[in-house]
Specification:
binds ligand FHN; alpha+beta; 13 helices; single chain; eight-stranded parallel sheet; 3 domains
Length: 591
């Protein structure tokens, strides 16, 4: 059994998960640890899934009246200030004639995916199935007479994928929330009626399509409380006892069952829940013509390995065009991912998280069934060592041998650090080379204490993804930004905000006493945070510097620029990471 499941089971048995939930005034239906484990088993082994954002917004492709609208395309109604009178009739143009469910699902299967989740109703409120509870759906608001969810479910059954349905708690179309002029406010006028509507629709989805996952979103809205989520969770568990529900059914910051979703971010370590990372292949979730911010296949493959090595599944998104065809780039990304995954099925599906083994050159996992007494490790090499010698650090073996993925022996040497593999005769594979180490008697040599223990809820900006502007500033050893000496030097990131929230911002930095004392200034979304750099022991001793609290009240991307403030010493600091920790007692004032 995988370590994170063991831990979660322990928590369940100890009543920890339950007591946390009960303190919010509602009680979860009881479920034994064994039953929970069984229900989650396929999901824990799945590793890779397909996310589809598809709705009326897909027709617009992120443009309104001929002009691109900022941010996520599925939010166009809001960011384009489109009134309901203008938006609702657009559904009449929804005619996905090019949607071929078999082709969609086959693409996912060939990429290595084991499940899919499709937006059956996103925030816009349009339903992709013919619901008896609204006319704003594919059955009545369009002339398109196909049951696309039924077709996708059948294609998933045929190709052996699990079928999941996304359902937004926020609904900009339902009369309880519809705003008259714009969407700057989404009030709640009749919660009882809306909850009954949701329950009725969710029952329809379950009765018709028997989804393996019910994937919620929009839980941050002020009128949706923890007890509402628990009540809905219980209702669904009764309707479909084997179905898996994501934690956004309640309040994502507190509720951890059945699994936790990390959006466009990776925790960088295993977390104490079963989890999934959902990621876009460019920037927007819904199809956006102007969004050319495509991730490379290498980035996507390494993301999959990274998430899996930390015990999560990758749910990778595609935003099909209005007619149901996929953007060419997504098709190519999927094909290229499939080339790697089909050549490495064992390294993908037979691997378990062993996240204490952190290596600078890539990731490590263990084969299922491995134990400290004997087993084997997969090494996923992202950065090929220039010396040709790969150092596996922090671990000792009584006996070990190393092999290439196809079984050729690799010379090894035991060092004070761990094991050194001589890769001179090993052929490099594009995107990530997989090696194996078979061992007897593995012991962890040193658990190097990291400067910051991530809880998994933070947003993180790493040094190596910053755009650096200025004369002297540069990225050193791929780990930190240094040589920050010129007053105009700045680091720039785009931060993805998954839900409106207040964050405490901290910098993981080092600064020798001789240089400390500059002011730093962080500009985010038109707001500014500042702090004065305090000395740390030396240039390599990293500590946390508190920059204060900031409210980010919109979903999507915001610009972050970091540089010198008023007071300037010879150097600013060395910076590894900017960490955004959600502040607990925040309630969104926008939604
Ligand atoms: O607002 C949505 C967004 O449009 C998208 O659906 C993502 C996917 O996880 N979820 C929300 C933001 O958290």
């Amino acid at each position: 059994m995988n370590r994170r499941i063991q831990k979660l089971l322990f928590m369940l048995l100890a009543g920890l998960v339950l007591s946390e939930t009960i303190s919010h005034g509602a009680e979860l239906v009881p479920e034994s640890a064994d039953a929970y484990q069984q229900r989650m088993e396929w999901f824990s082994d799945a590793k890779f899934g397909l996310f589809i954002h598809y709705g009326v917004y897909s027709i617009l492709g992120g443009e309104w009246k001929g002009k691109p609208v900022q941010k996520y395309a599925e939010w166009i109604q809001r960011w384009g200030n489109i009134t309901p009178d203008e938006y609702i009739p657009l559904a009449g143009d929804f005619s996905p004639d090019a949607l071929n469910a078999d082709v969609w699902v086959k693409r996912a299967k060939d990429a290595g995916m084991k499940y899919m989740v499709i937006t059956t109703k996103h925030h816009e409120g349009f339903c992709l199935w013919d619901s008896a509870l609204t006319k704003y759906d594919i059955g009545e608001a369009t002339d398109f007479n196909r049951d696309i969810l039924g077709e996708l479910k059948a294609a998933c059954d045929k190709h052996g994928l699990e079928f999941g349905t996304y359902y937004s708690i926020i609904d900009w179309h339902h009369p309880s929330q519809r705003a008259e002029q714009s969407l700057n406010q989404t009030p709640m006028r009749d919660k009882e009626a809306y909850v009954a509507y949701m329950k009725g629709q969710l029952k329809e989805l379950i009765d018709r399509y028997d989804p393996a996952i019910m994937w919620f979103d929009g839980d941050w809205t002020r009128w949706w409380a923890m007890e509402d989520g628990i009540d809905l969770y219980n209702y669904l568990r009764e309707l479909s006892p084997d179905m898996i529900i994501n934690h956004r059914v309640a309040k994502r910051k507190t509720f951890k069952l059945d699994f936790v979703c990390q959006e466009n971010k990776s925790p960088g370590a295993a977390i104490e829940s079963i989890w999934e990372g959902c990621w876009t292949v460019n920037h927007s979730w819904g199809y956006k013509k102007s969004d050319t911010n495509w991730k490379s296949s290498e980035e996507l493959i390494q993301k999959l390995i990274d998430i899996n090595a930390n015990g999560g599944n990758l749910l990778l998104n595609v935003g099909p065009k209005g007619d149901g065809s996929w953007p060419e780039m997504s098709i190519r990304q999927f094909e290229e991912m499939g080339e790697w995954t089909s050549a490495h099925t064992e390294a993908l599906y037979d691997a378990d998280c062993i996240s204490f083994l952190k290596q600078s050159w890539g990731r490590v996992a263990q084969t299922k069934g491995s134990a400290p007494a004997s087993g084997s490790l997969f090494l996923y090499v992202f950065d090929w060592p220039r010396s040709g010698k790969l150092s596996l650090q922090g671990v000792r073996f009584e006996q070990a041998d190393a092999r290439s993925y196809v079984g050729e022996e690799i010379p090894i040497q035991t060092t004070t650090q761990g094991l050194e593999l001589d890769l001179s005769s090993v052929e490099k594979t594009s995107h990530a080379t997989v090696l194996r180490v078979n061992y007897k008697g593995m012991s962890v040599q040193s658990l190097s204490k990291s400067e910051y223990q991530f809880s998994g809820d933070e947003l993180v900006l790493q040094a190596n993804v910053a755009t650096l502007n200025g004369k002297t500033i540069k990225l050193e050893k791929n780990t930190h930004i240094g040589f920050w000496t010129n007053p105009n030097d700045t680091a720039f990131w785009i931060l993805n905000v998954p839900a409106p929230e207040t964050y405490r911002v901290k910098a993981l930095y080092a600064c020798d006493a001789k240089y400390a004392g500059s002011d730093i200034r962080l500009m985010i979304d038109g707001k500014t945070l500042s702090a004065t750099v305090k000395p740390t022991k030396n240039w390599n001793a990293y500590e946390l510097l508190d920059l204060g609290v900031i409210e980010l009240n919109q979903v999507g991307s915001v610009d972050c620029t970091l540089g010198f403030g008023k007071t300037r010493k010879k150097s600013l600091f060395n910076l590894k990471t900017l960490i955004f920790q959600p502040v607990d007692d925040f309630e969104s004032s926008v939604f």
